[in-house]
Each structure stands twice: as structure tokens, then as C-alpha cells.
Amino acid sequence: MLNDETHYIYLLFVDKQATYYFRINDMATMIDNLAELAIFDKVATAGSLTGAANELGLSVAVVSKRLAMLEARMGVRLLNRTTRRQSMTQEGERFHLHCVRILAEVQQAEAVMQHSRSDITGHLRVTAPRMLGTRYLAPLAAQFQAMHPSLKIELVLSDDVVDLVEQGIDVALRFGVLDDSIMTARHIADSELVLAAAPDYLRRFGSPETPAALSVHNCILYGTRSTRHWLFQHEGKPVSAEVNATFLCNDGNAAKALALAGGGIFLKSIWDVGSELRDGTLVRVLEQYSIPSAPLHVVYPHALHLAPRVRHFAEHALKNLRQEWERLTQRTFPFDAAGRADDVEFATTRPVPVRTGAGRAKPTRSKPARRSAT
Q1: Could you tell me the sign of the dihedral formed by the alpha carbons of 70, 71, 74, 78, in that order?
Q2: Beta-sheet strands, E only, within the chain
Q3: On the CB side of 357, how many CA atoms lie within 13 Å of its CA?
Q4: Residue 95 lies inside a defined structural domain of this protein
Q5: Could you list the mean pLDDT of each consecutive 10-residue stretch along the chain, which spans 374 residues?
């Protein structure tokens, strides 16, 4: 805010637990303070003063001095430092979230003022679970590359845990509940799970009317869902059913082939069987019982470090996969009164592996900062 009498500018940082502010005498001081925020951000992400100094091209003494000045002005300790290691204080973690957003806004403002648009070129690495990658990501990637011929795209398809930082991944599509991450995650849609079987199987054996009846039907189990108990929701209450595992396999595509051949009933994501349900080669079973589902997210680095190719591809995937979800489910994606989608951003300061498969990575101690994305 601007004080008319003294012409001081005060920057305020407010969260639920503390309020910080410091005074800026003039524009030169404001630029100087932004440099200190950038140094603090680099120290936080590099994990050490030495690492930050190397990346910034400064001496360790300069980085240490500017960090001390920032702490003195804020009136709080941002880092706990010893001769061997450093770690952010709770105040430092909260303040770093504000710093990241401020620096991102400054970058965006500079881009707007320059009226410049960077070309979408270079190398883009994208990861996804195998089924989703083969069926949906590959066509999206081909479409996007056709719009930007100078771009090279590498698809990394895996159902295992993928550490996005170590693997150099730019964009990930992943199922499940998000763990803490320095990445941004936007909700695409829920991965609705359905029970399905081929019409031929249902003609021969009939359709179960309750989950309990699955114990006398041929069921197809695969991968992480090889448990012989399937969970349902009915009228707000959980229902567990023991199933008869006639077929066991370690591959989802093989399970689907068994179901299409009339081998039995299987549990699969709407993303994998939506087209077959629409053309009638598979039929839903026990539709009146819902099955707990996992959300699908597009995950990419925080906006502060985002290249145009990453940002535009993430938006391209988000838009097209939501449209595909509407086609598969015959439902409209939920938007709020302002016309905004139900997006959620997670941004924390601690890097962790991000799982691209149906499971989830082990959580860390810090909690994600959650806000609606516009």
C-alpha cells in the first residue's frame, strides 16, 4: 500500500499464523528487495547457500549477507543454519510460498510489458500411465506437435513411481491423491471406476443384482486390483464384496481382452472402457452401486519456472482430456458460478516423487498450500 504522507510502500505478507511487512523507500529499494526475495528462493530450492551462490554467480558471502538483511527486515529467522546443513523454519516455509508467487507475478508482468511471446520449441518430456498414455496422451502429443512443428516431444509411459525432477519430466498425467510437491497440479476429472462385462458373458451367466452375487460369477483381477474384495458405496454406506477370481493377470490390457472375449466381469477406469461401453462391446454391471474413484491430474513445475512449451501443453492436455471425459461419461464438467473449472493448485517447497500410476507416493511432513486456480 502507498502512504501519501511519507511516500513509503509497504509490502504485506499475510497468512493464518503471521503477518509480515517491510517498508520500501523508493523504486530502487523495491528492486533491491526483489533481488533478496530471488536470492532467498534460490537458497530454498538449491538447499544450500553454496548451491544458490553457484547458480546465481555470486559469492557465498554476498548470498549470506543478503539473506541476513532480509531476515533482519522481516524480523523473523527464515533458515536454520549449521556448518553441515540448513533447513527452513516454519516461518521460512510460509514466506517462501509468498516469494514464489511474487516472483512469478513479476516475471509475468515483464512478459506483458514487453508484448513478447516466446516460440514453443525445444524438447518436452511427458509421462503418464501406460494405458492413458497409449490411448489419450499419444494422440494429444501428435496434435500439439503438429501445431508447433519446431517442438520435439518425448513420451515416458510407466505405471511405476516417477520422480519428475530426477527424470527431467516437464508434464505428468497421474491418478490418485496428491502428495506434497514443488509441482503444480490441476484436477482434470475423476477417474470413475466401473464394473463391465461382454454381452456374451451376460447372456450366458446373467447379470449380478448385488455385489454379493459376484462370488458366483467369473471375475477378472489384475495388477494393483488383484484383491479378492471389491469395495462399493450404496445409499451412502460402504459395501464390501468377495469376488471369484477366475482370471488373474498383471496387465490391464490383458484383463480387458479377457472381458471382451466373454471371460468375465472386471473393474476398470472409465478412461479405459468408455468407448467400449458406448459402442456396446462392453456393458456396465451393478450401475446402482458406486465405486470409490481416484482423480486425474496434470502435474507440472510451478509457474515461476515454467517454459511456454510446458504451460501450453499442460493447458492443451487439460482442455482435451476434460472434453474426452465429458464424451465418455455423457456429463458436463463442473464449473462454478464465475465459469471457472474446479482446479486445485498445490505448491510446497519440498520435492518428492510424483506417482503417475494409480497408487500414491509416501507423503512428506509439510502440507500443500491449496488454492483455487483461475
Answers
A1: positive
A2: 9-14, 19-24, 79-81, 86-88, 122-128, 151-157, 161-162, 171-175, 183-191, 193-197, 219-222, 229-234, 237-242, 245-249, 265-269, 283-285, 294-301, 344-347, 354-355, 369-372
A3: 13
A4: yes
A5: 37 42 45 79 85 87 88 86 78 87 82 61 92 93 95 91 83 79 81 92 94 92 72 84 88 91 92 90 92 86 77 93 87 52 42 40 36 34
Q: Is residue 296 assigned to a domain?
A: no
Domain count, the chain: 3
Residue 161 burial (CB < 10 Å; 0-12/13-18/19+)? Answer: middle
Query: Is 17 in the same domain as 102?
Result: yes
Rounded Cα distance, 11 and 210, in Å:
61
pTM: 0.58
pLDDT at 235: 80
Tell which residue, 314, 318, 316, has the closest CA to residue 326.
318
Task: Note whether 81 and 162 are same-domain residues.
Answer: no
Q: Does residue 186 fall inside a structural domain?
A: no
Q: Which of 94, 114, 134 is the last residue of a domain?
A: 114
DSSP lists the bridge partners of residue 193 as 269
Contact between residue 162 and residue 354 where contact means Cβ atoms under 8 Å apart: yes
- Residue 242 belongs to a domain with what CATH number? 3.40.190.10
**What distance in Å separates the CA atoms of residue 292 and residue 330, rounded to the nearest whole number?**
19
